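sorry for the late reply, my laptop died twice this morning and i had to redo everyting from scratch. anyway the thing you sent over, i finally got around to it. pasting the sequence first so we're on the same page, its 73 residues, then the predicted structure underneath. double check i copied it right bc i was rushing
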Amino acid sequence: MPNYVEERGLAKGGKGGRSADEEKALSQHVKEWTTWAMKKAKVITHYGFIPLVIIIGMNSEAKPHFSQLINPV
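ok and here's the structure:
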């Protein structure tokens, strides 16, 4: 008759009762989700950086005229 620890899968040798297939599937799922999230973050950063810089620049105190922006002097 198994004791409480063995019955619940809490023994030190077990991984919480998960099989190797479940662990592999979970690992694969986490890897796919991480890859998907990083691809989305790359696109957001790529297309959002310049607009962010423009918005921060427009909200700053120094507001030059357009002619001052065009002339290099």
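Helices lie at 4-8, 20-58, 66-70.
thats about all i looked at so far, will dig more tmrw
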